[in-house]
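Hi F.,

I've been meaning to write this up properly since the lab meeting, where we talked about keeping a consistent format for the predictions we share between groups. The idea is simple: the sequence comes first, exactly as it goes in, then the structure tokens exactly as they come out, then a line or two of notes. No screenshots and no reformatting. I'm using this chain as the first example so we have something concrete to point to.
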Amino acid sequence: MTSVALMGAGGKMGLRLADNLKDSGFALRCVEIADRGKAALAGRGLAAMTAEEALDGADVAILAVPDNRIGRIAHGISPLLKPGAMVVVLDAAAPYAGELPKRDDLSYFITHPCHPPVFSDETEPKAQRDFFGCEYAKQHIVCALMQGPEEHYALGEAVAREIYKPVMRSHRCTLEQMAILEPVLSETVLATCLTVIGQGMDEAVRRGVPREAARDFLLGHMRVELAIVFQEKEGAVFSDGALKAIDAAMPKLFRPDWKKVFEPEELERSIREITQT
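Output, unedited:
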């Protein structure tokens, strides 16, 4: 049985992964140093181990730790890993920044959830309210084999499908493509635009619109407009009036050169901020 050491198993993300791995086909070894995390694991019937115990002969080590700690922890556990072991990282930032140890005999596998999609066929209430995934709602995932033999991709993907289950599509990407997806597309672009949308709703409320009316109106229109932009409904288009409003507002809300956030130097700057703070 493939042994998997889960670093940070008692943390918020670690517990989700531990829940999915404990009844899987992998032999789970939980690593946690915080008393609170150990207690949370114990409540699930899982015992915390030291890194030395968990990594002794382990086939896979998953780093369920914050971005700015991945480099330090990865270097700390590197001497404990056997040749041919795989290190699974849950975000592209630290690997892209060169934070992982230089060991040619290790495989580095990067994976990240897409999270449950806005448009889905979920009917169960728990699944509909599972916004992050790894519990009830189905989601897609992205994966990259940063280094290691090609046959290790299948192992990494199998681990990823288990920790993020239930999984629909698994997309194979390069490390660089995953860094474009996050932080650039999902955080720099999407999170920023959504923050502006939220601030816009607050401004409408400040100007007298009832908050519930503003929220209901905005979220309903958001669903329609998402369906138009992402072509969820064949033939659906913006009205002529909406197109005129978009053309007039674009230069007021966005700089003409806003797409430079995708340029390599901007991406590297963003990742440095993530991994060094």
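Notes:
The radius of gyration is 21 Å.
The longest strand covers residues 139-147.

If this format works for you, I'll send the rest the same way.

G.
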